[in-house]
Write a structure and sequence with these properties.
binds zinc ion; Rossmann fold; alpha/beta; 18% strand; 177 residues
Length: 177
């Protein structure tokens, strides 16, 4: 019998664009685009992250599979009141290749809206640490009838024993490490 884990492995691929260590410039961008007290800094860092997504999709959009019919983001799992619009939505909707397909598809309790049924979903998240939230989100999309889910993560946090990689000329699909 297939377990949920098997189904997720089969139907959900997770593609990190870069990996980073605590203290790297990318870690700083990934934190400040949400948390910096200055709106100007938040905007600037969001633009930097959108540029990373755009450049990656230009080179490796085809590696991801697709064509995707819906683009969505992982809900915020931070403590405290959620912002009206999650900053990650602001990043994704700055990316020309993603904006027209973006729809909010997951509620804050990680249940999916009915509209995902039948869609090939590109699920975007900013930071991958343990993958718990991403897996919850992917499972909810599949349970609600999404045909497939490919998860695209801007940065994967790795331990200091693992080298950080950030080279947009390759990706983990067309040139696995
Ligand atoms: Zn590639």
């Amino acid at each position: 019998m297939l377990t949920l884990e098997d189904v997720l492995t089969e139907l959900c691929r997770v593609v990190p664009i870069a990996s980073f260590h605590t203290g790297d410039p990318l870690a700083d961008d990934l934190r400040r685009y949400k948390d910096d007290p200055s709106p100007a800094v938040r905007r600037e860092r969001a633009a930097a992250l959108a540029a990373i997504l755009s450049r990656f999709l230009e080179r490796h959009g085809g590696c991801l599979g697709g064509p995707f019919t819906l683009v969505t983001t992982v809900p915020s799992a931070r403590d405290g009141p959620a912002p009206l619009v999650h900053p990650l939505v602001g990043v994704v909707t700055r990316v020309a290749a993603l904006a027209p397909l973006y729809r909010p598809a997951l509620r804050d309790d990680f249940t999916a809206w009915e509209l995902v049924r039948g869609h090939s979903v590109l699920l975007v998240d900013d930071t991958f640490v343990t993958g718990v939230h991403l897996r919850r989100a992917a499972a909810a999309l599949l349970a609600a009838g999404a045909r497939e889910v490919v998860a695209l993560v801007i940065g994967r946090k790795v331990s200091y024993e693992t080298p950080a990689t950030f080279a947009l000329d390759r990706c983990c699909l067309c040139n696995p490490a």
